Amino acid sequence: MTSDSPLAIRHIARALVFDPADRLLLIEYKAVRPAPSNPDSKNFWFMPGGGLEPGESHEEACRRELGEEIGVHDVALGPQVALCDGPFLLFDKSRDARERYFLVRLPDDRVDTSRLAETEDNPVVGTRWWPLDELASAEVRVEPAGLADLARRIVRGEVPITPTVLHWHGA
């Protein structure tokens, strides 16, 4: 693909996964190449989730991905709370992402990430349950922009009726 070629569109489902202490589970990835909004190829934090398989709905893909990435199966999905569409350049394979984000509340903080690295096309650094105040003040890159603020609103009981539109950093 040349730099003038359009990016492939990828439909993706992700989850804002909260534990009973209202911490948000995020995955840290190594940025494998620089992008205009990340010239130093810094690591970034992202929600669990991934691409839809043929014939899958966003909800089905989200449930499958949560099973594959964090070992949580048969999870009850809450509403779609956000979306983010546009070019995402930090993964090894850049894409024109069409992401949909669902609310998930787990009964405890037990997850199994033993298979996470084998399901990803980018190097996984690790996972962390983030306290929201700490996440909001941390000097780390969290994608998409505004995710920490959205998570804080949800925890306060302000679950969006219409999905919130988020954007990639630098987009």
TrEMBL record:
The keyword GTP-binding does not apply. GO terms for molecular function: hydrolase activity. Its cofactor is Mg(2+). InterPro entries: Nudix_hydrolase, NUDIX_hydrolase-like_dom_sf, NUDIX_hydrolase_CS, NUDIX_hydrolase_dom. Keywords: Hydrolase, Magnesium. Belongs to the Nudix hydrolase family. This is 8-oxo-dGTP pyrophosphatase MutT (NUDIX family).
